[in-house]
Design goal:
Elements: E1 2-3, E2 8-9, H1 32-39, E3 45-50, H2 55-65, E4 69-75, H3 85-90, E5 96-97, H4 100-107, E6 113-116, H5 123-132, E7 136-139, H6 147-160, E8 164-166, H7 174-184, E9 193-198, H8 224-228, H9 254-263, H10 265-270, E10 278-284, E11 294-301, E12 310-316, E13 353-358, E14 361-365, E15 373-376, H11 380-384, H12 397-405, H13 415-434, E16 438-441, E17 446-447, H14 451-456
Parallel strand pairs: 3-4, 3-6, 4-5, 6-7, 7-8, 9-12
Antiparallel strand pairs: 1-2, 9-13, 10-11, 10-16, 11-12, 13-14, 14-15, 16-17
Helix pairs in contact: 5-6, 6-13, 9-13
C-alpha cells in the first residue's frame, strides 16, 4: 500500500521533516535520545499526560499509582471542563497546557514519556510528534482513527526505538498469560470460529441525525482548533465533546473500536490472525454519519501456516444478541472493568464476552483480564485434569509501560502487537461505514472490491496545518 499523502511506500522509512512554524520548530528534537537514557537510569519516568478527563483521568491515576512516574505536565484542550477537575486538584502545581505542541515546545527537555488519552481521532498527531522527539508513549485504544495512521505509527515505533504501549489492560492480566500458556500447551488449537459481543447501551443508540450538528458558541475554556487536530473542519457543538465523539464516524470507532481490543485481543495475538481477507456487515439503523444501531460483522481470516481459517463474528446493539452454546451459563465478568463515562455495562443482562471454538474444545470468556473457561468439547474432561500452571503477571499494564521506558521490561501491547489488531478493526469499521462487504488484500494492503472503502483506508485528508504529522 502506498502512503497516499506522501506518496512514499509505507514499508520504507518515512523521511524526517523539520516543522515549519510556531511551537513545532524546536530544539527539543535533539534531546529525545538522552531522555531515553535518563529514563533507563533508575529515576522516575517524567510523564506528561495529554487528555486528562474521563478515561484519561483514570490513566493518569493508574500511571501515577505505580510509583514509577513523576507527573511533570498536564495537557487538555479544555482545562475548564468538569471532567478535568479531579486530575487538576490531584496535581495543583504541575504546569498546564491546552496545546500539546506548545507543551513540547516549552518542556520537551523535561519529558521522558507521554500518556495520550484524547478522542480516538486525535491520537495520531500527538503520538507521531512524541515519538519523533524520542518520547515513550502510552496511548489509549484504539491506536488511531484510520488504517494508514496505524501503519505510520507502527513504522515510527521501529524508527524512533521508543517504548510504546496501547492501553488494553487485559494484556497484563490473567487472560493474557492464560491464553498464551494454553496455546503453547496445545489446549487452544485449530480454532475455526470466534463469537464476540458487546450488547450494552451506547451513546448513539436512539440517535437520529440527517446532518452534522448545528453550530454553537465555542466555550471560552476550549481550544476547538486544537481539539479538531487532523479531522476536517467542523463547527463546534457540545454534542461532539466529552465522549459523544464516539458516536460519529468522523471522530470515533464505535463499539468495535472501543471494546474489540478488550474482547478478542488475545485471540488475535496468540492465534496470529493478522488482517482479514473479508468483512461482511449486517447492519440495523444504518446512517452515513453515526454508527449503526446494531452491527453484525463477519471477519474472515485466512489460514496461517498449519492453522485453519477463522471466522470471527462481532455483535453489537442492545437487541442484536449472539448465538451462544446451550450450556453457556452465566457470563464471565471481570470486576476490574473501568466504568464507562456514559451509559452502563449491565453485568446482569449481558456483559461483553466471547466464545472460542477450537479443536474438540469450546471456551467462553469475558473482556479485559477475565480468564477463559472450558464449557464443552470431546477433550474437555481429559484437558481439565491436566491444566498447566499459569504464570503471574510481573506488572500491571501501567507499570509494564513505565518499566519498559526504563529499559526493564518490554511493552506487552506494543504497536507491533496492537497495530494489526487495530487495523483489522479499522477494516471492519470501513465495512460499517460503506454498509457493504469489503475484500482486503494483505499483500497490497488494498480493499479490492470497493473504491470508496479503499479510499477510507487513508482516512480523510488532514487540514493543511496538520499534514506534517504524516511525514515524520
Amino acid at each position: 500500500m502506498k502512503n497516499q499523502i506522501s506518496n512514499t511506500p509505507l514499508s520504507s522509512g518515512i523521511p524526517r521533516r523539520s516543522f515549519l512554524k510556531g511551537a513545532l520548530a524546536t530544539g527539543a528534537l535533539t534531546v529525545g535520545f538522552p531522555n531515553i537514557l535518563r529514563a533507563a537510569s533508575g529515576d522516575k519516568v517524567r510523564l506528561a499526560c495529554i487528555g486528562i478527563g474521563n478515561r484519561g483521568a483514570d490513566d493518569v491515576r493508574e500511571l501515577h499509582k505505580t510509583g514509577l512516574a513523576e507527573i511533570v505536565a498536564l495537557c487538555d484542550t479544555d482545562m475548564g471542563s468538569k471532567p478535568t477537575e479531579p486530575v487538576l486538584k490531584l496535581f495543583p502545581n504541575v504546569p498546564r497546557f491546552q496545546d500539546f505542541r506548545k507543551m513540547f515546545d516549552k518542556m520537551g527537555k523535561d519529558i521522558d514519556a507521554v500518556c495520550i488519552a484524547t478522542p480516538d481521532f486525535s491520537h495520531f498527531p500527538i503520538a507521531m510528534l512524541a515519538m519523533s522527539l524520542g518520547k515513550h508513549i502510552y496511548v489509549e485504544k484504539p491506536m488511531a482513527h484510520s488504517f494508514l495512521q496505524i501503519e505510520l505509527m507502527m513504522a515510527a515505533e521501529k524508527k524512533y526505538k521508543v517504548a510504546c504501549q496501547m492501553g488494553n489492560q487485559g494484556h497484563s492480566e490473567g487472560n493474557y498469560f492464560q491464553f498464551k500458556t494454553w496455546v503453547d500447551a496445545g489446549i487452544i488449537r485449530n480454532v475455526t470460529k470466534i463469537t464476540a459481543f458487546m450488547n450494552n447501551s451506547r451513546r448513539w443508540h436512539g440517535m437520529k441525525v440527517d446532518g452534522y450538528l448545528p453550530e454553537q458558541p465555542v466555550p471560552e475554556s476550549l481550544d476547538w482548533e486544537c481539539w479538531l487536530a487532523t479531522a476536517q473542519q467542523h463547527a463546534y457543538n457540545k454534542g461532539y465533546t466529552n465522549g459523544d465523539w464516539r458516536s460519529w464516524f468522523d471522530f470515533g470507532n464505535g463499539a468495535l473500536g472501543d471494546w474489540g481490543a478488550h474482547i478478542f485481543d488475545t485471540s488475535h495475538e496468540f492465534l496470529n490472525l493478522g488482517l482479514p481477507t473479508e468483512v461482511e456487515p449486517k447492519l440495523e439503523g444504518y446512517n452515513p454519519l453515526i454508527f449503526p444501531q446494531a452491527s453484525t460483522l463477519a471477519f474472515r481470516f485466512p489460514a496461517r501456516g498449519s492453522q485453519p481459517p477463522v471466522e470471527l463474528t462481532w455483535y453489537d446493539g442492545q437487541q442484536n444478541l449472539p448465538p451462544l452454546p446451550a450450556n453457556f451459563g452465566e457470563a464471565v465478568v471481570d470486576p476490574n472493568i473501568p466504568p464507562p463515562s456514559s451509559g452502563s455495562v449491565d453485568t446482569k443482562r449481558r456483559p461483553p464476552g466471547k466464545v472460542i471454538y477450537g479443536e474438540d474444545l469450546v471456551f467462553k470468556g469475558g473482556t479485559h483480564g477475565s480468564t477463559l473457561q472450558i464449557i464443552g468439547g470431546d477433550r474437555a474432561k481429559d484437558v481439565e485434569s491436566k491444566l498447566p500452571k499459569i504464570p503471574r503477571s510481573p506488572s500491571n499494564h501501567a507499570a509494564n509501560f513505565l518499566k519498559a521506558a526504563k529499559g526493564e521490561e518490554q511493552c506487552r501491547s506494543n504497536f507491533a502487537v496492537a497495530g494489526p489488531l487495530c487495523q483489522a478493526m479499522a477494516i471492519g469499521i470501513i465495512a460499517q461505514r460503506v454498509n457493504a462487504t469489503v475484500k482486503f488484500d494483505s499483500a497490497s494492503k488494498q480493499i479490492t472490491n470497493h473504491k470508496i472503502a479503499n479510499e477510507l483506508l487513508k482516512g480523510v485528508p488532514p487540514r493543511q496545518d496538520w499534514m506534517q504529522y504524516y511525514k515524520l
